[in-house]
Every structure is written in structure tokens, then in C-alpha cells.
Specification:
alpha/beta, seven-stranded mixed sheet, disordered N terminus
């Protein structure tokens, strides 16, 4: 029972954390994971949160055709990803802030930041979609790193550290919340982890088929894994709200993952644990201050029954930007207010969430956002904020 309780709490946070804590809870593969998991200095020299203190972790899913060490993925792995061309490589498809309060009675929260959020990036990288921060940070660092004599996988590893730091700085700047821990997983790791745990239950309101995402699934409840699971969480074309619907898909997937983690034998089969060990040591990156002992002790405090997935307040989902095409409109002041309320009082954010649209002006039109150009057209309405998703059931989504 103890192992299953731990697994449920972690699964609700993110797939990557589920995997690592399974090893810690069972003791299986502990030495292998401890010695071989790739670590990052993205958080610099900051002191990690104490075992009994609240903490906030930045959880990132990245579009990468290399493993955590910077080595290229084999062709058979790339084929299973169904990820298409490489124009989006090193973009972050998933950005989640997991906040775990101090005290066992407090409610943990997972706050999603849509990948197409149009925001000011840190480190003088300009105003762009937030999912490009990692890649832009890498490119900005490459010239200096090349001058230092780095090349090949060594150059990629060093530039990726710069990308991680840029993303951490940008999320902190946008939300006003300090990041205490960092975890990253790439597409191949996601595929292998979902296969290792035997798939994840999801539910679709209608059948979906979209060639670019590689998705072809029927309506209703079903179990997805591998490439199907990846397509489920990555599709955004042909969805009514685009990127915002994709965020809801990701949250629903994590809720289904939590339920799967509770299934009898789901996380105790040695063959599955072996597969998880291989996936984590090859595809997962954790910050250097997040050793397994600390990670497990901190995540045990998260309340599995109360944790909720929420999304930052957004404006127009079809903001026409001068540099990045169509993006999701963001008001940084409203985001900071919202995230502050989530961090300060997890229950408040469920009882009285901020509206997703700004108040109307006297003429009845929508007030402009601070992040949008003054001449941005306003021909379509904003999308209402979705209801919070919890792991109490497998929600049906578009």
C-alpha cells in the first residue's frame, strides 16, 4: 500500500517523477538510477528546499532527437515517435509548475503554461512563444561555447544547460515564483515510460485522426501507450482551442496516469521496473540538488486526493504576433496574481479562480492585453478557463 500511495502522488505531478520515485519506493534499481541519471546545473548554486519545506518544481517535456547525454536517437526510436520534421527540435511541448506545500494537509497543485504563450523571455531573448525559450537560449550560447573549443555532443550538452537556465529564468519572471527543482524528459523517454507501465487510460469525446500528430484513436475510454500516448498529448491541430486543448489533454493524461499507477501490479513487475530504469537513465534530466532521498521525502507530502491541474489565465488563443505567427495572449500581471494565489492557498484557486478573459470596456469590447501589439485585431473571442482536473476520475476531453 505504501508504494502505491507514493506512486499515485508522483504520477499526478509528472511522468518523469513517477518513474524516479518508483525506483526509490521499491528499492529496485536504486544504485543504477542514482549513478547514471543525467543531472543539470540549470538552477546554479541555489540551495535546494529543505525536506519539510514547501517547494516548486519546473517539469519540462522537450522535443528532442537526442538523449539526455546529447547522443542521437536510433532510427527505430525516431520512427516510433511519429514526431515529423525537426523544425521544432528543442521546443518545450510541456511546461508545468508543480507546487507542493509544507504540511501533509495542504493541497498540491500542478500549473500548466501553454507552450504558445507569447511572453517576454529572460536573458534578453526578446518576446516570443515561451516554448522557444530553451532553443533560443541554446543558440545564444553556442557562439561562445564553440569559441571555447566545444563541438559535437559536448557542445550540445553545454548549450542545453544554457537553454535550461533561460527557461527557468523565463518561468520565474513570468510567474513570480522561484523554482526549487527542475526535471526534464524528452519524447523518447515519454514513449518508453508509458510502455513500461502498461499504458495509460484516457477518454475522448469523439474519434480523432490527424496525420501530422500521427493520431488515429476512437471515441470513449481506452488505454494508450508509446507512440499513441505521445500523439494524444501532442496534438493541437484540428482542436477547437488549439494549444489550450492540448494542455487539457496533457492534464487528463496525467490524471489517467495516476489511476494506472494504482492498478494492482502496475509498478511491481520486475520487467516493467527494468524498462523504467533504462528509460530514466537515458532520457531524464534532474537538477543536481534533487537526489533520490530528497525527492522521495518531499513528494510523499503531496496529497494525492487533493492535487489539481490548473492552467494560467490566458487571453486570445489566436493572437497575431509580428514574429511568431499565431500565439496565445498572456497578461503577465494576471499570471503572477493567479500563480501567487495557487502557491499561497491551493484551495482558494479552486473555489474562486480568476476569469480567463479581461473585463469588458464601456463599449463592450475586450480590453487589450499588455503583451499584445496595440493594433492586434480582436475578431474572435477568448477561450474560457477550463475546470481544474483531478485524478479522481479519467476525464473525457476533445
Amino acid at each position: 500500500m505504501r508504494t502505491r500511495r507514493i506512486a499515485r502522488r508522483v504520477a499526478q505531478g509528472a511522468v518523469v517523477l513517477l518513474s524516479v520515485v518508483v525506483f526509490a519506493a521499491t528499492g529496485y534499481g536504486w544504485a543504477v538510477v542514482t549513478e547514471e541519471t543525467v543531472t543539470s546545473s540549470a538552477l546554479g548554486d541555489r540551495e535546494p528546499a529543505g525536506l519539510d519545506e514547501e517547494f516548486t518544481a519546473l517539469l519540462v517535456g522537450i522535443d528532442s532527437r537526442t538523449d539526455a547525454s546529447g547522443d542521437p536517437l536510433p532510427d527505430d526510436v525516431l520512427a516510433e515517435l511519429r514526431a515529423g520534421a525537426e523544425e521544432g527540435q528543442f521546443n518545450t511541448d510541456t511546461i508545468i509548475l508543480l507546487h507542493v506545500p509544507a504540511g501533509v494537509q495542504a493541497s498540491a497543485s500542478a500549473v500548466s503554461i501553454p507552450r504558445d504563450s507569447f511572453v517576454e523571455l529572460a536573458d534578453d531573448l526578446g518576446t516570443h512563444k515561451i516554448n522557444s525559450t530553451y532553443r533560443r537560449g541554446m543558440l545564444a550560447a553556442e557562439e561562445d561555447l564553440t569559441a571555447q573549443g566545444l563541438a559535437g555532443s559536448a557542445l550540445e550538452r553545454a548549450s542545453r544547460e544554457a537553454g535550461r537556465r533561460a527557461l527557468v529564468d523565463t518561468v520565474e519572471q513570468l510567474t513570480g515564483v522561484a523554482v526549487d527543482h527542475f526535471a526534464e524528459i524528452n519524447l523518447a523517454g515519454f514513449v518508453e515510460i508509458t510502455e513500461a507501465i502498461g499504458g495509460v487510460p484516457v477518454c475522448l469525446n469523439a474519434p480523432v485522426m490527424e496525420e501530422r500528430a500521427g493520431i488515429d484513436l476512437p471515441a470513449g475510454r481506452q488505454v494508450v501507450s508509446g507512440g499513441d500516448a505521445l500523439a494524444f498529448v501532442r496534438q493541437r491541430r484540428d482542436l477547437p482551442a488549439g494549444d489550450l486543448d492540448r494542455v487539457t489533454r496533457q492534464q487528463a493524461f496525467l490524471a489517467g496516469l495516476a489511476r494506472q499507477a494504482l492498478a494492482p501490479g502496475a509498478l511491481t513487475d520486475p520487467a516493467r521496473i527494468d524498462a523504467l530504469v533504462r528509460a530514466v537513465t537515458r532520457y531524464v534530466v534532474l537538477d543536481r540538488g534533487w537526489d533520490l532521498d530528497r525527492l522521495v521525502a518531499q513528494l510523499r507530502r503531496a496529497s494525492g486526493s487533493d492535487i489539481a491541474f490548473v492552467t494560467i489565465p490566458t487571453g486570445r488563443p489566436d493572437l497575431d504576433t509580428p514574429v511568431d505567427g499565431v500565439a496565445v495572449e498572456i497578461d503577465p500581471d494576471r499570471v503572477r496574481e493567479f500563480v501567487s494565489r495557487v502557491v499561497d492557498d491551493g484551495r482558494m484557486r479552486l473555489a474562486s479562480p480568476l476569469p480567463s478573459t479581461p473585463p469588458p470596456t464601456a463599449s463592450g469590447t475586450t480590453a487589450p492585453r499588455t503583451s499584445a501589439p496595440a493594433d492586434t485585431p480582436t475578431t474572435s473571442p477568448t477561450v474560457p478557463a477550463p475546470d481544474p482536473i483531478t485524478a479522481d476520475a479519467v476525464p473525457c476531453v476533445d
